Design the sequence.
């Protein structure tokens, strides 16, 4: 087992994050020393070119903060962010500017993330103009028109305002804006959570198609495990500021080594319409202001061991060497590791699994 | 014979006045039943009319813009639409409870959650503050706060979304209703909490012998607790049936699209490999200001026929008369 930094098997990662922490001082009284809110707590991961890393967790687990920190929209407190070989952790705003083109973001709410006073043409073209990516204004407008067509909107959309569009269409505009500057990396922060299911499918298809065409990398953030499982090459499961499990999407979804991962999958609706009640994750995570000593998940974990889980925090370690499947747990649901991996879709157990 | 349903919505039609002086139809002849002690899931996407249905049942439609054109909402043998407002106030929050989507805006920020639950209790039953406090604590415990006294004096902003939704449920249960109407109770919540709140609703309905009308766009989640699903599209019922059948073999092309656009488990991406796109529904809801003849779903339907554009399909019986479906393709299959 190794607790060292997670690195890809081959090739250079586009983004490498090492032991990244974001702490906020919180004063609870004028004369009291500030406490620290651990929004992100010692997180390491990498993303390869053209790859999607899915980041899943409950609200408040720090996934959005993490997404913004790797773009340097939120200042990291500790750790390192390396983008395409360059350490950007402490770069000044001026020094990071050339990299801004290469790193973009799509937000959750397509209603508040688009300027209502700008036309689609202006919104999508803003980045191209600000970063002087086009030699002539003709070239700029051609790029805008091409991008708008790529996201599936007609040319008549160009001179209209955001309020004339539905939520799904607005999200297409936001995606066109992000991709117009030809980034290498896009943070998708809950891009479909505000949309209807049938519209969600359109946007997921669009993001996947554009990734295939432009070979952009995504950090895909969502609380919806169905969406993350479907969209990602690899998945990271986050809880209370930490990554508790990470690995290839199929491995994580089928093995579910961490009890929290197992609970998250257990909370999904069963696909066969079976009316029996399924496993529900009860309770809520503790507040990030005073994270527990030891494992972050212990207060909701059925396997928590006194004297161990409440004393020592487990490292994110690779259980089977070379599998790139890592888990931070002293009692991973490892019994399945001995059994051959099921090739078909797994059924969700009705009762807590593998306690025996 | 079976007992009459607790709630029966019959041929309900609601329209809204527009700024231009015309009116648009929000509901166009919606009928469904909520049987005693059963859970019905009313499913559809934004703009289908599901919230208008909930507001009609509670008689909370905005006036004067909304108008009920025809129909009846029969609750315990009485048409709610003919009830005077005074009597309706006794029904609302009394025999019919409600839980809404936005758990933050539905609670007032200036009172503690305990005080708000006590107010709900004392609105429907005369009792001392001490008794009301004891009842409020019991309700908090019931909705999943293991140590209710620690939460009693909390203010809404101190609670998470899931906790607030549970507080709202406690208020709705203050005077145990016969029918609980939950409008998108989980849409603002995380996946993990959705399961928690749906399970809680189902448990409470079972324990209190309550009927439940859950209005949602999340078909897979409501399918887990509902006895019956009613699918709405553009103000009309397009399909009804038990969740197991609707999920496994949806009959209406719209229901089929709804079921299939949920990303399937067990489909994973491999680097450098393209895969088949998710089936999607192209286009959007028809503009309610223009109502062309024919089926409202025809412009988006993958299986549209000439007939569908000219003639509006009625509801056909399916599954030997147990279910209904509004599609010509099912017309001969009944």
Sequence:
């Amino acid at each position: 087992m190794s607790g060292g930094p997670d690195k890809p098997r081959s090739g250079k990662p586009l983004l490498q994050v090492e032991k990244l922490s974001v702490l906020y001082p919180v004063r609870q009284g004028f004369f009291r020393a500030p406490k620290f809110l651990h929004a992100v707590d010692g997180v390491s991961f990498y993303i390869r070119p053209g790859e999607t890393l899915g980041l899943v967790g409950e609200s408040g687990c720090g996934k959005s903060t993490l997404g913004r920190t790797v773009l340097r929209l939120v200042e990291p407190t500790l750790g390192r962010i390396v983008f395409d070989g360059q350490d950007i952790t402490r770069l000044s705003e001026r020094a990071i500017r050339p990299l801004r083109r290469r790193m973009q973001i799509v937000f959750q709410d397509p209603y508040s993330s688009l300027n209502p006073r700008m036309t689609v043409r202006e919104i999508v073209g803003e980045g191209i103009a600000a970063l002087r990516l086009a030699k002539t204004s003709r070239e700029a407008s051609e790029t805008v028109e091409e991008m708008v067509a790529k996201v599936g909107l007609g040319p008549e959309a160009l001179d209209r305002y955001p309020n004339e569009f539905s939520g799904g269409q607005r999200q297409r505009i936001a995606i066109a804006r992000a991709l117009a500057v030809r980034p290498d990396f896009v943070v998708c922060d809950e891009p479909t959570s505000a949309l209807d299911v049938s519209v969600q499918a359109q946007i997921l298809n669009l993001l996947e198609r554009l990734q295939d065409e432009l070979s952009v990398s995504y950090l895909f953030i969502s609380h919806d495990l169905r969406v993350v499982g479907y969209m990602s090459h690899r998945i990271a499961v986050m809880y209370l500021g930490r990554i508790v499990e990470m690995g290839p999407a199929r491995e994580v979804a089928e093995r579910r080594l961490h009890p929290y991962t197992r609970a998250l999958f257990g909370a999904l609706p069963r696909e066969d319409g079976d009316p029996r009640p399924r496993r529900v994750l009860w309770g809520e995570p503790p507040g990030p202001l005073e994270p527990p000593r030891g494992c972050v998940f212990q207060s909701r974990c059925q396997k928590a061991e006194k004297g161990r889980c409440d004393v020592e925090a487990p490292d994110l370690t690779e259980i089977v060497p070379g599998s790139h499947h890592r888990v931070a747990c002293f009692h991973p649901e490892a019994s399945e590791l001995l059994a051959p991996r099921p090739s078909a879709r797994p059924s969700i157990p009705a009762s807590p699994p593998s306690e025996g | 014979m079976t007992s009459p349903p607790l709630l029966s919505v019959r041929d309900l039609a609601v329209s809204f006045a527009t700024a231009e002086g015309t009116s648009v139809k929000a509901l166009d002849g919606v009928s469904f039943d909520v049987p005693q002690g059963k859970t019905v899931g009313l499913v559809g996407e934004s703009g289908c009319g599901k919230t208008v249905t909930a507001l009609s049942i509670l008689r909370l439609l905005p006036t004067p813009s909304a108008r009920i054109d025809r129909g009846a909402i029969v609750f315990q043998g009485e048409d709610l639409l003919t009830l005077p407002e005074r009597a309706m106030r006794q029904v609302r929050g009394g025999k019919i409870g409600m839980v809404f989507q936005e758990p933050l805006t539905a609670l007032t920020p200036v009172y503690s959650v305990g005080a708000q639950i006590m107010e709900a209790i004392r609105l429907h039953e005369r009792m001392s503050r001490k008794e009301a406090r004891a009842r409020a604590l019991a309700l908090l415990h019931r909705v999943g706060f293991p140590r209710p006294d620690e939460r009693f004096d909390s203010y809404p902003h101190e609670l998470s979304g899931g906790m607030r939704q549970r507080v709202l449920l406690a208020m709705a249960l203050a005077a145990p209703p016969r029918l609980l109407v939950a409008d998108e109770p989980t849409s603002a919540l995380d996946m993990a909490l959705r399961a928690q709140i749906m399970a809680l609703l189902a448990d409470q309905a079972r324990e209190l012998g309550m009927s439940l009308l859950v209005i949602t766009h999340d078909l897979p989640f409501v399918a887990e607790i509902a006895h019956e699903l009613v699918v709405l599209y553009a103000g009309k019922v397009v399909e009804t049936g038990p969740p197991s059948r609707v999920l496994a073999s949806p009959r209406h092309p719209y229901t089929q699209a709804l079921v299939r656009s949920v990303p399937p488990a067990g489909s994973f991406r491999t680097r450098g490999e393209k895969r088949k796109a998710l089936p999607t529904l192209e286009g959007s809801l028809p503009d309610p200001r223009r109502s062309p003849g024919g089926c409202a779903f025809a412009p988006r339907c993958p299986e549209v026929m000439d007939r569908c554009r000219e003639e509006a399909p009625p509801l056909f019986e399916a599954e030997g008369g147990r279910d209904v479906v509004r599609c010509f393709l099912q017309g001969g299959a009944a």
